[in-house]
Amino acid sequence: MTSAAYIDECGVLAISGNTISAAEYARRGAALAQESGWSKGIVAAAANLAFLAVQTGDAEEADRQLAIAASQTFTSPALTCGLAETTADAAMAKGHYKEAETLLRSYRDPSDKIPPWYTLNATKTLIRLLLKTGRPSEALSLSAKGFSAARAAGLSGYAVSFQLARAEAGVALGENPEAGALPFEEISSDSPPALWAALYRTLGIALEFSQAASATDWLHRAARVSRALGDRKTLSDSVVNGLALKNYPSSGPPGGGLDSAVALLEFAGQPHILGPEAFAILEGSRCTDAAALVVCGPAGLHIVSSIGWTIPEALAAASTFDSGVERLPIGQRSNESWTLVVRPPRALDAYCKYASLRKLLSIALTMDEYRCREKQRTALWPADSIDGDPDCIWASEQMVETLNIAHRVAATPLSILITGETGTGKEMLARTIHRASDRAERPFLPFNCAAVPRDMLESQLFGYRKGAYTGADVPFPGIIRSAAGGTLFLDEIGEIGPEIQTKLLRFLENHEIHPLGEPHPIKVDVRVIAATNAGVEQLVADGRFREDLFYRLNIVRLAIPPLRDRREEIPPLVQHYLRKYGEEHRKGCLSLTDEALEYLLLFPWPGNVRQLANEVLRIVAMADADSAITPAMLSSEIRSARRTLPHASTKAEPEIRLPLNQSLPTAVESLEREMVRHALERAQGRVEEASRLLGISRKGLFLKRRRWAGADVD
Fold first, then answer.
1. Which of 114, 252, 435, 699 is the most exposed place for a label (fewest CB within 10 A)?
2. Which residues touch 666 (CB under 8 Å, ≥6 apart)?
């Protein structure tokens, strides 16, 4: 299990561009797989290490790992295809193009059922080979096929890669690609950095003959990103028309500009890419007397790049706190901290450029922080509105199921009855149904039956003709006719009297109304959604509600549970109303402490969402701008509802604390070791008893202890 976790972590790190850590995890997974004799794990780890070796330009290590993979008994169609692609990549790095092409064409379109990304990877590598060997026409045709296959498989990242390859092949054939041919919109800050490097490289190739200076800037940026990723394969690739990325120096673009600003915003959160990019702008715009990109890790300080200082001078500037030196934080990566150490210029023009870069870096890091918080929040509380209404935040399993039913019946003309306590969001659900129906462009008209006196309810619903009674000086169409073609939402339907129930039943059956004073019935096309917070069945049993009308309304019934039964929606609802009311009252960015959120989560909310919204509104009105909401700011009703019970046991329970800034496999291994040690202590060294306490077999405990041989687990 631990070996598989290490190998999986290797894949994640490789995609994110952290090749060094990826290789380390692959080696750990390989060692554990070797110990246990797990052939599949050995092959998977060796294949990953071979791939990483090709990426970093270590041909000897790639061959060694491929030999290890080939020596194992485990095999599968997917593995065969993946190893063939990596072997071909290694052969290409040595210039053995015929051997590589034979391997790639053997597995480009296999008959075996394997995941599509294996064949798509092989296709991408074959396209690279065709471009390197001067066959752009074949590369263009294969890129189009690869793009279609990637789109069909729903793999957008691969589709983008094939779009870029198609543009590169077109340039080699003398075409001038238009902006629409490049996937600008498809690549975002969430895309792997390698895709950005590929886009920059393609732009450099496309602009080579029309705008040489701009082309050079793009190729510089592609080289910097590839170098930061440790991708020597891309750096050493020969590109169209004889350009070679490896021949481009690593100095930055001459003046930055919009493209440089966008790059800083996109790579915030990836300091190993953001740092070199910011340093290149500093150097290219000549807005500093001296600067160094510094990495501080377990091994101490390391100077990545420097200008105006020698390496010892840069180390001294980074180690001491000189008032004439500024430190611009770039970010944290694993256990390394990246910083730009800068001596600001004295000239006014140069200092203005430097101040702009400093501000842009700060904005980029702040935006990335908010982006990470939002990802974390949505991962924990998936509060996206299904119908696009920002007030419709339904994340619970019950509400998702209710919404699925609502969307299925929205396109039909069936009447719907929505039940639920006051304040649960019955009208919101009715609006959702209306927006999902073919009546979405027509009116949605809510009407509360309890808000109108009973003696006026008939005229309000059905309307009247001029002169129908004393005081009827002008005609009134009524609520039903006003909603013609759209949806009528009748709230508190249980409050209407028996005489109105009869007329409403006739309307639902025949779609006809008979306004006061009109000689003939009038046809009206309206979809009716009714709602009530009362038990309609009990009203029918008591004779207060017509049974036939109940059945006519109850064709589709949607029940909304109270908020106390869907507490997972409370955090996103609170965040939504904090933002909404904070903007309305100009209170800036308000946040909620964990303790305050705990109070809100534990409160029963008898008034449901409406009560929660009002509570947040009261809090916002009393809060200071840009402050954190604490329990003291909550209403006394909510504070008093929480009761903290003392722990009944006085005996200290054994516990272990793990730092959160480590990988999951490392944390799991540490936890396993401590639990095994504790179980052996409780069992006084008896392995049989310890394995029973741990809930694993004796053999499982033996294998774990053998894996940790030399460590103190006895």
1. 699
2. none
**CA-based nearest residue to 165, from 207, 193, 123:** 123
Instruction: For residue 636, give Cα distances in angstroms to 571, 605, 639, 650.
Output: 20, 14, 5, 32
C-alpha neighbours within 13 Å on the C-beta side of residue 535: 5
Taking the C-alpha atoms of residue 305 and residue 441, their distance in angstroms, rounded to an integer, is 60
Cα 533 from Cα 539, distance rounded (Å): 12
Compute the residue count for the chain: 714
The residue assigned the tokens 């100077």 is: 303
User: Is the model's pTM score more than 0.70?
Assistant: no
Contact 682, 693 (CB under 8 A): yes
b/e sequence 137-151, b meaning 16+ C-beta within 10 Å: eebbebbeebbebbe
The H or E element that residue 342 is part of is strand 336-343
Closest-CA residue to 45 (of 11, 73, 19): 11
pLDDT given at position 33? 83
Structure tokens belonging to residue 426: 């019955």
First to last CA, the chain: 22
pLDDT at position 519: 84
Burial of 619 (0-12, 13-18, 19+ CB in 10 A): buried
DSSP-derived letter for residue 464 is B
Give the separation between CA 131 and CA 140, rounded to whole angstroms: 9
Burial classification of residue 455, based on how many CB atoms lie within 10 Å of its CB (0-12 exposed, 13-18 middle, 19 or more buried) = exposed
d(CA 372, CA 369): 5
How far CA 705 is from CA of 5, 72, 189, in Å, comes to 18, 26, 44
The amino acid at residue 224 is: R
Which domains are delineated in the chain? 2-202 (1.25.40.10), 258-380 (3.30.450), 409-561 (3.40.50.300), 572-641 (1.10.8.60), 664-707 (1.10.10)
Query: Measured between alpha carbons, how far is residue 487 from residues 412, 434, 483 in Å?
Result: 12, 7, 6
Token representation of residue 250: 């690593």
User: What's 114's DSSP letter?
Assistant: -
Give per-residue pLDDT as tens, 225-278. Answer: 888 877 666 555 534 333 444 344 444 444 446 777 778 888 888 888 888 988
- Residue indicated by tokens 């080289």: 223
